[in-house]
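User: Continuing from earlier, I have the next pair ready.

Assistant: Great, send them over.

User: Here they are, in order.

Assistant: Folding the first of the pair now:
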Amino acid sequence: VQLQASGGGLVQAGGSLRLSCAVSGRTFSSYAMGWFRQALGKERESVGGINWSGGRTYYSDSVKGRFTISRDNAKNTVYLQMNSLKTEDTAVYYCAMSRGSTSGPYDYWGQGTQVTVSS
């Protein structure tokens, strides 16, 4: 299975980015998906997740109200729309797949995409 995250880049504080994660090699619609991030020198943290149908999502408190996770099962892709970005959102963002629920465990991981938010 391959998870290919894309869409990262450099953006000013207050701006927006949309990350994509394209999945191949598995029945995408059977898996819950999650987004995680890891800032330099910090532990990886959960950003949020979405269930297999897209009908249920969760978000960490740090991004709630600013980030939105969605998925298109026809395109085998999950998205992370990030609005009102803050400098503390700077991190490498990873997507992951879970055969269970959004609570994990997560079985497959993408390679990560860098998001840098400047002040």
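And the other member of the pair:
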Amino acid sequence: QVQLVESGGGLVQAGGSLRLSCAASGIMFSSNVMRWYRQAVGKQRELVATVSVGGSTSYADSVKGRFTISRDNANNTVYLQMNSLKPEDTAVYYCTAWSLTGFGSWGQGTQVTVSS
């Protein structure tokens, strides 16, 4: 059974930082592309950051230079370090895992709220 459990969300003032973690189980973690998505109220879901099997990363333009995605294959965990947070970063953040066959698994989400 696949489980992705996010943690680290919360309330922070604009300009602050948070680090999200996602602990994975039930998958071959090192063989999965890991992605963080977010969805704000009334908005479409947005792909925030991706880390490939080999460790390459990519980011949405809206978070480039502020967010950093990383993975720890030894501990089956993916992180999203979020710095210089803005009110527009407020959303539910979802950890996802994508197998080589394209099968996707989602976590339950963690709320990030940035106050102005």
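Worth noting for the second one:
The mean pLDDT is 97. The radius of gyration is 13 Å.
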